[in-house]
Write a structure and sequence with these properties.
single chain, about 270 residues, alpha/beta, five-stranded mixed β-sheet, about 10% strand
C-alpha cells in the first residue's frame, strides 16, 4: 500500500514507495507521489513539497486550475496534461461541472454509477487520455533525483488511474493495485462527507437516492476500475496492449521504468 508523507493539509497525497513489485523488488520511496490538488497546502506542506518534489503533473482542466490554482513552489516545475477534454460531473470539479452533477443526481444512482464507469472507459480510449497518460509516462522515463507528483482534484479518478498505470508498469500485483486505488475513500473520508452534504444543500436535494448518487460520483469504486480494465481488453486486447499500443510504452521503456523506480532484486 502507498504511504502518506508528513503533510498537514493534503490528506490523499501518498508515496508509492514500499509497494511490492515484480521480482521481489519494491518501489523506491520518495520518487513517485500521487495526490489531490495542492491548493490547500499549508506553509509546512509547501516546505515539504519544495524539499521532495522536482516535477508536479497537473491532470486538471484549465477551468479547474483557474478556480483552484496550485501554490507556487520554488524549484518545482509544473507540467499540465489535461486528461478529460469536456466538463465531467464528479470528476472535474469546476463550478460548471458541479452544476452538471445535479442532472446525474436527478436521474438515479444507477445512472450516476454508469456515468462514472463510462468515464473510466474513456481513460483507456479517448484521445485526450491517451495523449495525457502517454506523455506522463514518458516524463517519468526522464528520471531524476527528486520526486514526480501527479494530481487531479481529489486524487481518486484521473490521478488514481495514473497510479494504476504506473503500478501496472512496475509489476505491482493487481490486488495491491486495486487496494491502493480504493484507499482514496479512506484518505478522503471526511472530505467526501462534506462534499455530499454541501451538494445536497446547494441543490435543495435530500433522500437516500440523492445521497447514493453523490457517493457514486465522489468515491472510488471497484466497478469503475473494472470498467477500465474491460475497456482495455476490448479496445487493445489486454491492459498490456493498452500500455504498449495506446500509450506507446514498450518493453524497453517498461524496463527502464523498473530500473529507475524499483529496488534491486534479492
Amino acid at each position: 500500500m502507498s504511504r502518506c508523507p508528513p503533510f498537514e493539509s493534503l490528506p490523499n497525497t501518498r508515496d508509492l514507495g514500499g509497494m511490492s513489485a515484480v521480482g521481489g523488488r519494491t518501489v523506491r520511496p520518495g520518487l513517485l507521489i500521487r495526490s489531490g490538488n495542492l491548493a490547500a497546502a499549508s506553509a509546512h506542506d509547501r516546505e515539504v513539497l519544495a524539499d521532495l518534489v522536482g516535477t508536479v503533473v497537473d491532470f486538471r482542466s484549465d477551468k479547474e486550475r483557474a478556480e483552484l490554482p496550485d501554490p507556487a513552489i520554488p524549484g518545482v516545475r509544473t507540467v499540465v496534461l489535461p486528461i478529460i477534454e469536456d466538463l465531467s460531473a464528479g470528476v472535474t470539479r469546476d463550478a460548471a461541472s458541479d452544476r452538471e452533477a445535479l442532472r446525474i443526481l436527478m436521474e438515479s444512482p444507477a445512472f450516476a454509477k454508469g456515468y462514472m464507469c463510462r468515464t473510466y472507459e474513456g481513460f483507456v480510449t479517448s484521445s485526450a487520455a491517451l495523449a495525457g497518460y502517454g506523455a506522463f509516462v514518458r516524463l517519468l522515463l526522464e528520471g531524476g533525483g527528486r520526486a514526480t507528483l501527479w494530481h487531479c482534484t481529489a486524487g481518486k479518478d484521473r490521478a488514481g488511474f495514473a497510479s494504476v498505470i504506473v503500478e501496472e508498469l512496475l509489476g505491482v500485483d493487481r490486488e495491491a493495485i486495486r487496494a491502493d486505488y480504493l484507499a482514496s475513500n479512506h484518505h478522503l473520508g471526511g472530505g467526501i462527507a462534506r462534499l455530499t452534504e454541501d451538494a445536497l444543500a446547494a441543490h435543495g436535494m435530500s433522500g437516500p437516492d440523492a445521497e447514493e448518487a453523490l457517493l457514486y460520483m465522489f468515491t472510488a469504486q471497484a466497478d469503475y476500475l473494472d470498467a477500465a480494465y474491460r475497456a482495455a481488453n476490448e479496445r487493445w486486447g489486454s491492459f498490456g496492449g493498452f500500455l504498449r499500443d495506446g500509450l506507446g510504452i514498450g518493453e524497453e521503456q517498461r524496463d527502464r521504468l523498473r530500473r529507475l523506480y524499483l529496488t534491486e532484486g534479492v
